[in-house]
Every structure is written in structure tokens, then in C-alpha cells.
Write a structure and sequence with these properties.
mainly alpha, 6 helices, elongated
Length: about 140
């Protein structure tokens, strides 16, 4: 199967995209953040469903360190320190902060609203006309 391709270096992704060898990349969260920060003009990423996706910690069963680390992560998350660290290390560069927002808005669907409105109005007028003719 040639559906999955291994790219060994994050700097090879743009070349792989441009050559058509890949059309999407599955990256761990920290690598995806760095990649998007470096190449924001040409690439975008989906929004995460889970705040804590990406890398995790593994401990030996019964380790008292597991509870301490979990509590520390929860504490810095609740205090906003985790968000501050994330903003410091993974914030958008000045080049990326001026990119256009690709999120859909009402303006993206004006033609659809126009078609639906015109069709609804036409159907109502035809119904009303038929109602007047029958009475």
C-alpha cells in the first residue's frame, strides 16, 4: 500500500506536499504547532477536539510520582500557567498573525441564503396564487 508515507524530517513536509507525494500530514500536537508556526502562509491545521492531545507521561505502576505530576499539571492548567507557556513557545509569528481567517462566516454563504430565500418566496407566491384561484 502506498497510502502512508514516512517523512523523517519536519522540513521535508513542504517538499512532499508540493511534489504531491502527500496531501495531509498526521503530526503529534507539539510538532504540528511548530510546523504551522514555521509554514503558516501555505498550510493550516484542524482545531483540536481535546485540549491535551499530543504527548503524555508514562510512569511505572504504583509510582507516587504519577499522582504528583498529575496534580501539578492540573494546578498549572487551572492557574493559566500552562496557557501562558503554550502562548510563549507556540505563539504565531508576526508573519502568521496577519494571515486571513479561513473560518466560514455568514458572508461565505450569501449565495446559498439568496437561493433559499428566492425559492421559498417563489413557493409561497405560487401557493398563495393557487389559493386565490381556488377560492
Amino acid at each position: 500500500m502506498d497510502f502512508i508515507r514516512n517523512v523523517s524530517n519536519e522540513y521535508q513536509y513542504p517538499r512532499e506536499f508540493q511534489s504531491g507525494h502527500i496531501s495531509a500530514a498526521l503530526l503529534e500536537l507539539p510538532y504540528a504547532n511548530v510546523f504551522i508556526n514555521l509554514f503558516c502562509k501555505n498550510y493550516t491545521a484542524t482545531q483540536l477536539l481535546s485540549r491535551y492531545g499530543g504527548l503524555g507521561f508514562a510512569f511505572q505502576k504504583g509510582s507516587p510520582l504519577a499522582a504528583d505530576v498529575s496534580e501539578a499539571i492540573l494546578t498549572i492548567s487551572e492557574n493559566g500557567i500552562l496557557k501562558a507557556i503554550e502562548d510563549k513557545w507556540f505563539s504565531c509569528s508576526a508573519e502568521c498573525s496577519s494571515t486571513d481567517n479561513d473560518e466560514p462566516s455568514l458572508r461565505n454563504f450569501w449565495a446559498l441564503y439568496l437561493i433559499c430565500g428566492a425559492t421559498s418566496t417563489l413557493c409561497f407566491l405560487l401557493f398563495f396564487l393557487r389559493l386565490l384561484i381556488n377560492f
